[in-house]
Every structure is written in structure tokens, then in C-alpha cells.
Structure prediction request, 622 residues.
Amino acid sequence: MASARGLGIDGLISGIDTTTLIETLMVYERMPLTQAQEKQTTLQRKADAWRDVNTRLYNLQQKVYNLKSSLTFKSQKVIMGSEEYFTASASTGAPNASYQVEVVNLARAHTVASKTLEAANTSLGYTGKFQINGKEIEVTATDTLNSIASKINSTADVGVNAAIVKIADGEYRMTLTSKQTGAANAIQVTDDDGILANLGFLDDSGEFANLIQEAADATIKVNGLTVNRASNTIDDVIPGVKLTLKKAGSTNISVERDLDKIITAVKEFVDQYNSTMSFINESMAYNKETKEKGVLLGESTLLYLQSELRSILTRTVSSNPTKYNSLTMIGISTGAYNQSIEATKSGNLVLDESKLRTALEENFDAVAQLFGAKITNVASADNGATITTSSQYSEMYPATSLIDGRTTSDDWGNGGGWMDNTAGAYPDWVEISFNGRKTIDSLNIYTLNRDDMKADTYGVRDLSFEYWDEATSSWKPLKSAADPSKDLVVEGNTKGVINLDFQAVTTTKVRININSSNEDNDYSRLTEIEVLQKNDGIFSNMYSKLWDITRSGGLTDSKIDSIKEQQKKLDQRIEYLEELMEKKEEYYRARFTALESALSQIQSQTAYLNAQLASLSFGKKS
Prediction:
């Protein structure tokens, strides 16, 4: 927009500083626009602050998830007398036990060598083919030691690494090393055209002429029992424990609960909670001395949010023993003997690590229950559940195997999984009745999945889920936890395990409908179904609350959308006001231009009249 000063309309006749006058007038005219722009800046700061709140709450949700997860409480660790001979790690759920482990010898990879050749890049003149582990390699007369090694290494699934070693000037040898250790992975060759013999790998009898290292299995003793394995990484001898062998020697190990992992998870939660609450407090603060206001001052939603989270943290779990029925009782509180009054008032959490560790050692299950990490599978036969199905292939695939606790496919075809008897006819269904009314909110479906029968070929693909509604005596669809307006369904599954969360319902039974499998006209194959009771623990409840707050369309999302809508309307108003200000300035410029024009005319007329008067006066004198 051109300025009045740029057009040079300062009063030539009136002597008025028109530009300055218009600029002064426009300052007052622009006040509504300035206020709108300032409000827009404030709204943007609020939107940014709410996004920051949402991010911090989402991060807090992840920390809370770790505390409500049964996996955290199933974490195991290995205590070792020494890590000189091997290292060991325990997987989730490994049983507590002690072992003496001796490494007798390590697994070795088969390595053989060629004879010594004078050059690595000189054509050898050999022509023909040979095989390594059943894979064929063709050699031409122009091939060198280097190019033959390259051909071996570029052959898919050949199972060896070929390398050239310079012994000295004019002395080169090729080595072949099996990619896998163990006696069963010894290098196998066929040399009908004598290429390997010419290279010196084989002697006259067809045996390897230069054995560098023989293929060998690892040998260990566990509690005195000798075990042989092809690899130096062994994970199938001690339940849930992986051993990585280093050298011969013996030491004792014990597997026990990893309390440190739980305590670390609590520390991470406390840090994130305090950081989140501090940011929220700062955003709502008002400094009486400086009159500075937090960007979210007066936001009742934030006060509600804080109140809800603090309420969850301070509640009691009535089903727990009194000594373990609240976080305060196990060392997690909003005040401590070593904390200032100001810190206590801030609502920050403090952790008495010693008290928490003692609680875990004294009553581990009670702490897990308090946190919400103790999962109850109400679809288990051990918990009184029963099952019926649409059909059953044979006694080798019983429906009862779906509620017996065996989640693997190891016993498939031997009583360890269910298959229907109607190939290609869908839906198939499974109904599980509980031992009474249960409040449930998640389930796990285990479909057939093992090395020779993968889930992406033999597993179930499309499923839907229902619960029995006692009020209407009818089946109703379970609703997705992510979007309560949508039915809980699975489409296109290729995995062995399907984990699903849904809106909590109280019911006596559920139905799983299998609508298709991954192979057309095939059977439905499942190995286990788990239906999990809604947990009333502290962090289970907090996770649900945080999910409601941070999910798409949740509380923080709604606040940000509301601000966006305000910004959109304000943008329209600012655009209108800018156009109005432009017209206002043009109006003032036009008015002052008109004033100068009028004054100019008056000046001209005055000059004319003065001239006429002067001429009249001159005539009279003559």
C-alpha cells in the first residue's frame, strides 16, 4: 500500500504536514487491527503451549505404560560369578533358578586354504566348474585368484566367505571359511573339473589339503550335564536364558527378578511427571511483582487435567492389602522428609527408592497389582472358562487347547491348537464363557505360526469380535479403543499374535468370528485365546486417562482445534480490517488532496480578484 508521504501530498497551499497528520490519524484507526494481530499472536502462543503440553503428556503416557505392563514385572536378570567365560541374559518370564555352567570348548567355523600362488591378479588359465555347498561356480581361463574369490562371495546362499591373504611378496593364498560354526556346517565341495585341486584346496584323494580349522560344535556342561550346540550363542538349554560363549572355563549363574528395571521405570515416570507438571504450572503462573502472565493462565482445562492425574495417583486400590494399597505406602508420594514446603506444594512426586525396593521384595505381587501390571486371563480354563466352537476337525485339534495356556505352535496337530472342519466356509466362530461376569478390555489371539507353517500362509486373516449383552440377550460388537465409534475388527493379518485393546465391557462371554484365512478355501487355525480382565491399578487407570487426553480428538487435540478455529476467524477479521485501513488511508489522502485543490482554487480566485481590484484602482487615478 502506497504511503501518503510517497505520493508527496504535503500541503503546498495550506502548509499543513499532511503525511504526519494522516499517519497520526491511521494510528488510531488501526487500533482494532493492532489488537486483532496481538490476539492472533497470543492464540499462536497458546496453540504452541498446548502442543507442548500434549507432547509432554504423551511422553508421560509411555512411562506410565511401562509401569502397567506385565512385561516390566516379568523382567528377569542373570547374576554371574564371572563374565570371563561367557555372558548371559534372561528373557521375560525366565524361571528363577541357579546353575553351574562350564564352557568345555567353543564352536568353530570350518576353514580351509589353497596352495600358494605367485599373484592374485594374474589369469590362471583354469576352465570348468565346481560346487561349494551345492552352489555352482564357473571359472574361465581369464579368471584370477581375486576374481574366483569374488565369484564365490557373490553366489547366493553359498555358505562360505572367500578371502585372499598375502603371505609375502609373490605368495598369495585363498581361504574358505564357513559362515556358520558347528560340525554340521562343514564345507562340502564337488570338483569334477579339478579347479579346486588345481588351486590346491584338495589333495589327490579329494580331501582338503590345507585344513586351517576344523568345524566343531560348542560343548558346555550345565549342572554337570554335557550339551553340544553348533553355535557359540545358545538359547535353548537354560529356559529363557541366552548364553554367549567366550572361552573355556566355569562359573555359577542365577536367574532372578530384575527389580532394578522396575525401579528405573518408576524413576523415569517420576522425572517425566514432575517435568510435565512443572511446565503446566509455569504456563498457568502469574507473577505479582512483574505482572507477567503464563501463556495458559486461567485455562480451566489444565486445572482439571492436573486434578485428574493427582487424584489417580493418590487413590487407593481396595483389593490390595492396606500396606500396599496406595503409592504413598510404597514410597511414591507428593511430599517427603527431605523435601521443602515449597516443593511439596508444587505437587511434584518424590521417590523413596529404599521403601519401594523393600515393598517389591516383601510382596512383589501386591505392588504389581497396585500398579496395574498383574494381568488376569479370564479366558483360561484354570480360571474356570469354558469354550465352544462352530466345528472341530478332529480330536487332534481340540477347542479346549485354546484356553489351556499354551501360546506356541510347538504342539500343533498333537492337541496343541484348534482347526475347524469346514474348509473355505466362513465365518467360523469360537465362544468363550467366563466364570461369572467380568469386566474386560483387551484380548490376544494366537494363530498357527511356526517355521514350516507360517502365519502369513496358514494363519487367520480377517476377524471380528462380539460380547454377550445381558440387557438385550444378544451379541453386540466390541468397540475399538482407538475409535469407540468403530467396531473392533482385524483385516489382513499376517502375524502369529494379534494384540487388541477395546472399550471395556462387563459380560459373561465373548465370541471370536473368523471371516477368512490367509490361504483361500483353507481352514481356521488358532493356538490360544486370551481375554484380559480390566485392571484397576494406579497406572492402568492413569494410562487410560492419558490416552483419552492425548489421542486424536482427545482433550488436548480439541483445545488445539478450538484455537485453530479462533485463528481462522481472526485471520478473516484481520484481512477485512487491513482492507478497511487501506480504504481509510485512501479516504484521508483524497480528502486532504481535495482540501489542497480547494485552497488552490481559492488562491487563484483571490489572485484574480486582487488583480481586478488593482486594475480598477489604477483606472480611477488616471
